[in-house]
Amino acid sequence: MRAILHIGIHKTGTTSIQQYLQDHRQTLTAAGISFFRGRHIPQNHVELHTLSIRDDRLTPFKLMMGQPVSKAYRDAVISEINTFKAEAVTDTILFSAEGLSYLRFPDEFRRLRDLIGLDDVSVIAYKRAPAEWLASYAAEMKNIPAPPVIDDQSFAYVEPNTWLIDFDTRLDPFRQEFGDLTIIDYDEVSRRDGGVIPSFLRVLGICHIAGNDIANYRLNARAQARPSPEVETQTGKT
Questions:
Q1: Which residues contact 31 (CB under 8 A, 6 or more apart)?
Q2: Residue 105's pLDDT is what?
Q3: How many whole angstroms separate alpha carbon 196 and alpha carbon 98?
Q4: Which pLDDT score is estimated for 97?
Q5: Which residues are CB-contacts of 221 (< 8 A; sequence separation ≥ 6)?
Q6: pLDDT of amino acid 219
Q7: Which residues are within 8 A (CB) of 196 and not within 5 positions of it... i.e. 6 or more apart?
């Protein structure tokens, strides 16, 4: 069995991709890919980074949870992932979670690998022009609760020297841990295709499933000022 991890990064069309995947689960399965259904948000698998990242590091979702990760929670998520793998009717499974792009340290990537529990793992990431990305991300941060402390290591640190715009440093550990990393230029594919869905399906090797509804999936653009999907629930936003 092979796993595909879509890790964002944030503000690169991730919400659009996730909603498309959510709306086309049966089509994906027919094309040979099973899409995990998250326990918090069906299409945004925040539990992956929650269990992988160090306990002392905050993310928007961990901040929303408001409590440390318990053993019961960890065991439940692991059980859900194992059940998903066992019941999948395809040889390829797919996860999507931009929170994974917050991972930075070797132990975090090892925990992620253990959580997925497969040797064959491919990673897909998008990146965009740093200045434009930072402006979009900073606007997004205004719509979510701020962490108690914002230092230069925080996910909410949006000064020009932030670690968040060093995309190569952020993404290279995924290549080191999993070997197979595909990085897509968000700006280029947006200009060429009018959105990110065609490029994502192309990397998956299932362009043939694309329908006329692709144009409908351009969600959570900066102008909309919507809260991050990291802090959404199945029934609404928090």
A1: 206, 208, 209
A2: 98
A3: 15
A4: 98
A5: none
A6: 57
A7: 12, 13, 16, 17, 126, 184, 186, 189, 190
Say how far apart CA 122 and CA 205 lie, in whole Å.
Answer: 13
Please name the helix (run of DSSP H) or strand (run of DSSP E) that holds residue 79, with its range, or none. helix 71-87
Q: Identify the pLDDT of residue 221.
A: 54
Phi, psi dihedral angles at 6 (to 5 degrees): -95, 120
Q: Which whole-number Å values give the CA distances from 44 to 34, 40, 100, 195, 233, in the listed order? A: 14, 8, 11, 19, 10
Read off the tokens for 29: 């399965």
Is the CATH number of domain 2-231 1.10.8? no
Cis-peptide, bond into residue 9, ω within 30° of zero: yes
Residue 162 tokens, joined:
């932030």
Concatenated DSSP letters of 105-167:
SHHHHHHHHHHHT-SEEEEEEEE--HHHHHHHHHHHHTTSPPPS---TTSTT--STT-GGG-H
Report the amino acid identity of residue 230. E
Q: How far apart are the C-alpha atoms of 187 and 11, rounded to whole Å?
A: 11
Across the chain, which has 238 residues, the per-10-residue mean pLDDT values are 98 96 97 98 98 97 91 97 98 99 98 98 98 98 94 98 98 97 98 94 92 72 37 29
Pairing of strands 120-127, 2-6: parallel
3-class SS of residue 67: coil
| Gap between the Cα atoms of 214 and 195, Å rounded | 8
